[in-house]
């Protein structure tokens, strides 16, 4: 097995409701619970990376904005991203 494909065994405790949802999703997709967890984690990581990229792109637009109204709008949007408002 190449180093890129090496698997590492992890143990994680899930709240009962989350575990039930994982089992339900796995059953609907005809996957094992472990495979479903891997897919959910991979999707979550990709979503976080997209969110971070969007933040940096928005921050660049904010820094480069010359119109005060545009800067205010972008600043408000940045604030909502950071503070989740």
Q: What is the N-to-C order of secondary-structure elements (H for helix, E for strand)?
A: HHH
> What general outline do the C-alpha atoms trace?
elongated
Q: How helix-rich are the residues, as a percent range?
A: over 70%
Alpha-beta content class: mainly alpha
Cα end-to-end separation: 46 Å
The helix tally amounts to 3
What is the beta-strand fraction? under 5%
* Quaternary structure annotation: single chain
Low-confidence stretches: none
The chain-level mean pLDDT equals 91
**Count of β-strands:** 0
The largest pleated sheet is described as: none
Which value, in Å, is the CA radius of gyration?
A: 20 Å
Question: Would you kindly provide a written description of the structure presented here, covering whatever features stand out?
Answer:
This protein has helices spanning 16-29, 33-64, 68-83. With 85 residues, the chain is mainly α. Helix 1 crosses helix 2 and helix 2 (33-64) packs antiparallel against helix 3. The relative contact order is 0.07.
């Amino acid at each position: 097995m190449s180093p890129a494909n090496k698997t590492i065994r992890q143990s994680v405790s899930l709240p009962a409701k989350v575990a039930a949802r994982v089992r339900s999703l796995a059953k609907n997709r005809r996957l094992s619970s472990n495979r479903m967890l891997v897919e959910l984690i991979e999707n979550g990581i990709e979503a976080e990376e997209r969110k971070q990229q969007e933040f940096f792109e928005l921050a660049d637009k904010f820094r480069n904005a010359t119109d005060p109204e545009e800067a205010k709008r972008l600043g408000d949007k940045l604030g909502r991203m950071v503070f989740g408002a």
